[in-house]
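PROTEIN DATA CARD
Card holder: Snare protein Snc2
Chain length: 120
Origin: Eremomyces bilateralis CBS 781.70
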Amino acid sequence: MSDREQPYDPYIPSGNANDAGGSNNGQGGNQRTAALQAEIDSTVGIMRDNINKVSERGQRLDALQDKTDNLAVSAQGFRRGANRVRKQMWWKDMKMRICIIVGIILLLVVIIVPSVVATR
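Structure generated from the sequence above:
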């Protein structure tokens, strides 16, 4: 009737024929429970480390996202500045070409007009 007095717990071994001695049953169960508790504590510790690592990874990803956004903004500003400089340089180049063409035309006029006038 001692089995009926205590509630059934599948994690506590019963006092059947599988036990080597009646007095060792409590110690063997305590050792097994302690070993299981140590394994559970180890697993909990590993899981806490994993959770901390995931949290740190999330923080690093957030920092990387912020840096990426800043870099995208900087790249857009650089692109605008580069286009502005390109247009300015194109206008400068066109002005220089126009000045050279006008200079050549004036030089030809200065050379050709007196020679045409002299031949008449």
